[in-house]
Amino acid sequence: MIKAVFPGSFDPIHNGHIDIANRASKLVDELVIAVYDKPLKNFLLSPEERISLVQSVFEENPRIKVTGYSGLTVNYCESIGAQVMFRGLRVFSDFEYEFRMALANHRLTPNVEVVALITSEEHTFLSSSTVREIASLGGDISTMVPPIVEKMLKKKLSSLGENNVIVPGQALRD
Ligand code: ADP
User: Fold this and answer.
1) 26 in the Ramachandran plot: left (φ > 0), alpha (ψ -120 to 50) or beta?
2) Confidence band for 87, pLDDT divided at 50, 70 and 90
3) What's domain 3-160's superfamily in CATH?
């Protein structure tokens, strides 16, 4: 039986992540989507909110489980007996980062293979930070995330108010 982990921040989960998870789940017996519990980054959504959104998205897929975790990803993979870690690749800059991470992870735990799936064309530009920024500026994210994610983001952003520092405007504002 092949068990795999798809780790990430999922702040929030978007259609690019969902596509990778669905495709990865067809290649293995069980896929665990593992949501970073204790982020180093300044996240918009709490671990509970991020986990609960991912759970809602995949509640009808028996091959996918969702959980939070902290610490080294490879240690988490080993602790649940996963042999494979999936990552998604969009552009060359992703490749450089994922390549270095895969080599570091392999040094730590040669038993866990990193498998990178290439994004589907329509999701090439999608990232959680783009979704957060568009949502914070009142833009339409309905083609980028499922309705439940859109609803939660709107609620969260309105609770933070307009001058929140968690979603800095980077590029889409100009
Ligand atoms: P992390 O902080 O680990 O990068 P993310 O939630 O940003 O967490 O991403 C989790 C995984 O999903 C990463 O492997 C990332 O490259 C991949 N990913 C993010 N956006 C896309 C996308 N649009 N298409 C394919 N893969 C993606």
Assistant:
1) alpha
2) very high
3) HUPs (3.40.50.620)
